[in-house]
């Protein structure tokens, strides 16, 4: 009986803890800095009771822009019109009148595409050269990032430097993130 307690206390428990600690270290860590796939111009000014918002879209696709304010009344005004769709390679100016409180901060968020456009059903291909094989390293509803409505259909492939990526269909590349470095 004493031998069993000794074995459990001094060998099995420490091995279990060590296994848990080492196992947790194998989970991939996301980079601490987030790089966006595109940038767009956003600017606002407040003068007397008028709020002006200017948006510039340098992309070759429509861009939907959302505005957020901590002021409840102003947010109600934003909610009436967002998202604002800015056409490809164009800009727009919005003016809000009779805004009673000075606007100190507006947060912006954006998404690609125009929700009013009809989506045609087309056949897509994987974006790789023919007869090439790649490993999926993260897919639908997996840990650690592809588990939300925003990303659950995304796939991450194990690619090497200088691997050729092709278009899955006709269109424009509107954003590439090439700032992440792995060791």
Q: Provide a count of the helices.
A: 2
**Secondary-structure content class:** alpha+beta
| Residue share in helix | 10-25%
Strand content: 15-25%
Major sheet: order of its strands? Answer: 1-2-5
Order of helices and strands: HEEEHEEEEE
> Roughly what is the average pLDDT, rounded to an integer?
80
Main sheet: strands, sense, barrel: 3 strands, antiparallel
Question: First CA to last CA: what distance?
Answer: 50 Å
Shape: elongated
Please count the beta strands (DSSP E, at least 2 residues each). 8
List segments where confidence is low: pLDDT < 50 over at least 5 consecutive residues: 1-8
Radius of gyration: 25 Å
Structural commentary:
With 183 residues, the chain is an alpha+beta fold. Among the domains are: 41-112, no CATH class; 121-167, no CATH class. It contains two helices and eight strands. The strands form three sheets. A three-stranded antiparallel β-sheet has the order 1-2-5, with no helix packed on it. A three-stranded antiparallel β-sheet has the order 4-3-6. It starts with a helix and ends in a 26-residue tail after the last strand.
Quick synopsis:
The chain has two helices and eight strands.
Please specify the SSE layout and strand pairing.
Layout: H1 2-25, E1 41-47, E2 50-57, E3 63-68, H2 72-81, E4 84-86, E5 90-96, E6 107-112, E7 136-138, E8 156-157
Antiparallel strand pairs: 1-2, 2-5, 3-4, 3-6, 7-8
Using brief descriptors, characterize the structure shown.
183 residues, alpha+beta, 3-stranded antiparallel β-sheet, 8 strands, 23% strand
